[in-house]
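User: My collaborator and I are trying to settle a disagreement about how two of our proteins should look. Neither of us wants to argue from intuition anymore, so we agreed to look at predicted structures for both before our next call. Could you fold the first one, then the second, and keep them clearly separated?

Assistant: That sounds like a sensible way to settle it. I'll keep them separate. The first protein:
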Amino acid sequence: MDPLRQKSLRLRKLLLACVFAAIVISIVFAALQRSDWNVPEEAKQRKNPLPPSEAALQAAAATYRDKCAQCHGATGKGDGPEGKRHDPLPASFTDAPRMNAASDGELFYKMSKGRRPMPSFRTKLTEEQRWQLVLLIRSFARKSPAPETPSAPETQPAPGKQPAPGSHPVATSPR
């Protein structure tokens, strides 16, 4: 084989290897993007410095409408018009058990850091605005409709059941 053909063959092999490597890297990157959030323990332990107040919720509502509702929906169900096009779908803030499992610091970290397709809000919102949003998104879980109840009214909750909705708020104290 002449030297020119050998060089051409080596170049094609190198190009094929580079394309193969790019495909593998893309697959690994995509797989990592779908994994669960990796929130540092230090971030999970952060406490919301803002006490729940009507003023904080009203301020957060304006920010939420502007920055979050298009994906997470007007009532926090994850059903916003823009969010339907994303994979993964936006989180629902109305899922009380899920919201109770997340600390305020964890919610703050996630909105600050972002993860595709959700952008980072660290530089787009002030720290106070992000903590206000933590208060607001927690309120969505408290407002979620109660599950269907049996037709016969109960006078007391059955053992192991939650008290009636509204008898205690979900995650009222800042963590």
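The second protein, kept apart from the first:
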Amino acid sequence: MLAEYIRHFRLPAPKWVKQMGYGREIISLEARYRRCIEAWAPHLTATRDLITKSATECPATDHAVVLGSGALLDIPLEDLAGRFKRLDLIDIVHPASARRAAAQFENVHLIAADISGVAPAVYAQAVTAEPIGDRPQPPKGMRDASCEIITTAIDRSLAKGDRLGALRAPNPDPAMINGADFVVSANLLAQLPLLLLDWLQAHRPFANDATRDAFARSIIDHHLALLQNHPGKVVLVTEVLRLVLNDDTPGEKIDPLFGAPMMLDGNEWWWDVAPPGEINRHLSMRLRVLGIPDLAQAPQLRSCRNTTLAAP
């Protein structure tokens, strides 16, 4: 825990990025990888192989972009850096492991950017300055007044009904991938809304689950639109089902895309993201992953992949 705290403290990221949990999340991801390295290996290998094969078949080799590069666990960095003249790794925060790996290649560039297109606006929605667990106590003598101000602000927010009414729609910047011959979005799509939802849940409670799901789906829809409107070759790897198991017996099935239709065909495999013992000794979680080597050329399905899989 102390080592993770130090890594988080040293992360070069704006205060608001760390407050929203992006720093903690990437550090926790690396820790989970070390605990689950054997269980994750088939998924990571399948992802890297799909990206490498698709890159090898890309005729233009000037510029490649990886969206959500993270800790580079699922990214064949050496293959991409050797294939393309310029490689941009884009994420909201880059851990030390990614910075060290990128530094080995002169043509690899780390870019810090909000891929969702809405994170700063979500951060600004906070009624309180920080989550309760992270917020320092107000000075002595000001405590009662501070709590009263916060309580009044929350009451006024709740009285408005729909707490997301003033939140603008996601607007991911096309400039992130403009001119790229090859774009990768790997294991990112279903993750984009999660920390944003956590932040809003902590600071501005949702009116209902439908509002929450609609906001999450809008983030996913806009990311898909960004990829589908790009003229270059696009690789998409995303989970399309979360399956919770109890003592290896399949239980709850969750649509990770919040109803956004995924009606494209591609390669599929299972990812044992939380093997037995990671959550507790009884519960585990598997993800059904869809890998599309060329989004524009992907065959169309007659049914929605994710909602069909998640159906009872």
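Some points you might bring to the call about the second protein. The first strand starts at residue 63 and ends at 67. DSSP finds eleven helices and eight strands in the chain.
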